[in-house]
Amino acid sequence: MNIVDETIPAPCAACGEKSPLESGFCERCQSALPLIKADVRCPACGAENDGIFDICSKCLKEEERVWSNAVALMRMEGLGKNLIHRFKYGNDTFLAKPLGRLAAAALKTLDFDVELIVPIPLHWSRTLLRGYNQTVLFCEVMAKETGIPLRSILKRTRATPKQASLDREGRKKNLLGAFAARRSHEGWMNRKILLVDDVLTTGSTLAEAAETLKHAGIAEINILTLLRA
Questions:
Q1: Looking at the domain assignment, is residue 13 inside a domain?
Q2: Poorest-confidence range of 3-7, 67-71, 108-112, 131-135?
Q3: Is 117 exposed, middle or buried (0-12, 13-18, 19+ CB in 10 A)?
Q4: Residue 143 pLDDT class (50, 70, 90 cuts)
Q5: What is the C-alpha separation between 90 and 83, in angstroms, rounded?
Q6: Among 81, 160, 181, 195, which residue's CB has the most CB atoms within a 10 Å radius?
């Protein structure tokens, strides 16, 4: 580290002001993040539990889920929503570091038995247009912070309309057969993985990806998302 790094604090990733916190955010922005507290988190979808049961009311109505446990870092509101929009559509790729650190810190507090971190892939055409896959970027930071290897063992087999423009049933139909597991010799069969995406809305994307991985021989799947809509 040079003398400039030692004497001039890095700017806050959210507001651009000086940031003394290891997270990459200043104290004001850190406190403004709509974090989901661990003691009220639904283990099925990562949202804040809204009832007296172990899982939230929405998950009680859902059919059996593919994954074992879920964690979401923030609610889809306020500063959290703003950061994801900038990260995903505004080319603010530097946000991968603070968001990846937040995800890594959360993962370290959980009892998930994770051997590999697996990001949800974009279709090559969308990656080409955007220039990057935001989920891969913050997963790289997570992997570095936790020491858990990252493996891109999923691929998109076809381009699909954006999920945000579809209703719940449309999202499910849109993603049928959209993923495939890569056939490789990296030893990922029968492993326990953390499947990661930036946002969980209805869960259709993660469900389809998880089903694909289960059929391919993954032993256990837990999920992590930055935001829970």
A1: yes
A2: 3-7
A3: buried
A4: very high
A5: 9
A6: 195
pLDDT of residue 1: 42
Stated pTM of the model: 0.89
Q: Strand (E) positions, 115-176? A: 116-119, 154-156
The amino acid at 192 = K
Query: Is 125 found in the same domain as 98?
Result: yes
Q: What is the pLDDT of residues 27-82, one digit of tens each?
A: 999 999 999 999 999 999 999 998 889 899 989 988 788 999 999 999 999 999 99
Task: Please state, in angstroms and rounded to a whole number, the distance separating the CA atoms of residues 129 and 123.
Answer: 10
Same domain for 59 and 20: no
Both 99 and 182 in one domain: the answer is yes
Which residue's entry shows tokens 């992997």? 143
CATH code, domain with 88 = 3.40.50
Question: What domain range includes position 200?
Answer: 42-228
For residue 147, count other CB atoms closer than 10 A to its CB. Answer: 8
Residues 198, 112 share a domain = yes
Instruction: Say which amino acid occupies 164.
Output: A
Alpha carbon dihedral 83, 84, 89, 95, in 10-degree steps, equals: 60
DSSP 225: E
Residue 37: inside a domain, yes or no? no
Q: How many CB atoms lie within 10 A of CB 2?
A: 6
Strand ranges for 33-175 from DSSP E: 70-75, 116-119, 154-156
Q: What is the pLDDT of residues 151-205, one digit of tens each?
A: 999 999 887 766 566 556 666 666 778 899 987 756 788 899 999 999 999 888 9
